[in-house]
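This part of the workshop introduces the protein records we will be handling. Getting from the letters to the tokens is the skill we practise here. The record below serves as our worked example for the rest of this section.

…
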Amino acid sequence: MIKNDLNSNQFKSLNTAVLLLTFNRLDTTKEVFQSIRKAKIPRLYIWSDGPRSEVNQEDVKVREVRNYLISNIDWPCEVKTRFNEVNLGIKKGISSSIDWFFENEEMGIILEDDCLPSQSFFWYCEEVLERFKNDHRVMQIAGMTYVEKPNNALDYSYHFCKVGGIWGWASWRRAWELYENEMESFSKAKEENLFDNLFIDQNERKKYMLDLFERHYGTSGTWDFQWSYTKIVNNSINIMPSKNLIVNIGHGHDQATNTNSGNNRYSNMKLKELSFPLKHPKFVAIDVSFDYLNYKYVTYRNWKHSIYYYIDSKFPKWISMLLKKIKNLL
């Protein structure tokens, strides 16, 4: 049994592999790596995208990150690396690295270089991965919880939700095999009004998700909205912890791609720990109130950002980068 004292070294040894996604940020990578190092992960997969030819000295930064990681693995650990010579970008690079990971592992944990986990995150993922490995209803285990459930009288360690975030998460090969990198079925899903059946009595959420998928359908800038789409069209159930186990330390970083605004609610989230042994919910069913609280937190926007998203949804996609720059100035 796993003990509750995180500093007592009485945790059982981990069996779960971790995929670490890296690029050019040495400072945030160091923090995330130290958490992995402390947990003594048994198998570590390191993916590193190649430098962009148009960015001055980026090859030096990428090389520094790679050298730091390889030279600081000082515990018994099987290490596999995929270091790209050329830059694949977020969409192709990250999705192909997760393909590579699940070609080698039946299940595992995925961490980006700015997603700092608590120590209990690793053991929580391992236990829940094993518990639901054959339950095809469940497709993802998230590490981040935006809003804790008020008066969690049953004291469950986690809750079931509709989607779940990807800043520190875990999954199975059988789930990732369903991933639609190009959202290939999107046109057919709309034609058959699939979303009417998936968001019964949730017109607000259906509209939000459809608008989101419309904006990202056919684009090359990201991979994660396609993963959310995959989970939704497969009507999956996903898991979020009762306490937040991940903080994003990349907000405001000058080399961040999608989190380069420091004035962000996610920047102020607190890193917490779960108690063990975990208390598992009795029924595998979405906790509607918990799910909605977290959905509202993610979709909340002040008036400035609401204007930006309205414009972004109406204008052609070729000006999306300009709008992103405007949003970050607000």
Observations:
- The two ends are 50 Å apart (CA to CA).
- The first strand starts at residue 17 and ends at 22.
